[in-house]
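INFO  loader      accepted 1 record
INFO  loader      residues=284
INFO  predictor   begin
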Amino acid sequence: MNHFLHKQVVWFFSGYQFKIQTNWFKKLLYLMLIFKSVNWLWSFDLYFGDTAVVFNRPLTLTTVKDLAFYLYTGQPACKALLFIAGLLVLSFVMLIFKKPYFVADFAIWFLLVNLNNKIYSTLTGGDYLLNQFCLFNCFLRITFLAEQKWFSDLKIFLHNLSVTALIVQVCLLYFLSGLAKCNDAAWLSGEALINLTFIHHFNLNDANPLPPTWNGFFAFLNYLIIFYQISFPLLVWFKKIKKLFILIGLMMHLYIALVMGLFEFGLIMILPYIYFWPFKKAIS
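INFO  predictor   done
INFO  writer      dumping tokens
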């Protein structure tokens, strides 16, 4: 047991792990943030204007952690515009530069959290997950030079710890989501996806519900999703089925993004899949 634990501890200091995955993850994360920023600017009055659909109650900042709600405290719309512009510019700059800068990534996280807290009632679970991704991103590296200094060891440790935390969070998210579905009558009866076909908002071009002959197929997908989510933390590591297993998840989230209309949620959920895809080569 001591030997096993020793190997796990050494893993965090033995070098940067998941190099290729991290390189792609950071690029895709910045692209996602650029997309969100442009979307917010396009619909600025709806979310942040004086007649926005989101109500913010008065709030007094008393502790450092309350700074995450700075925009929520009734700040003028021009400050929200500055936050969005800052998020857009920083994300674009970090996408271009190959060297990670902690201060810039931390600022991106701070700006995003404030903007999301400002429009909290319009968020999906994916937005809260994106907050966490940006926090972990502060410690992820895309340059992997090893130096004989204690600071280098600290950067390696924080990188590997952040990668591990990101992977564990995604596994827990799927597992707990699957358990929640097991406590829902519609999912247990196999009718959850069938019921979605009756909701025009979650279908392309307000499509009419599918005929009853499709009920069996949707019931199968219903239970497949439950099985997929509960078994994800285990089956995603089996090499023989890894790619197929990941592709099932990608198709599920693409359906959510392109058919159900939850575009940002679907894309955000696809982001961490880069850490589960098997890459053969490592970045030198």
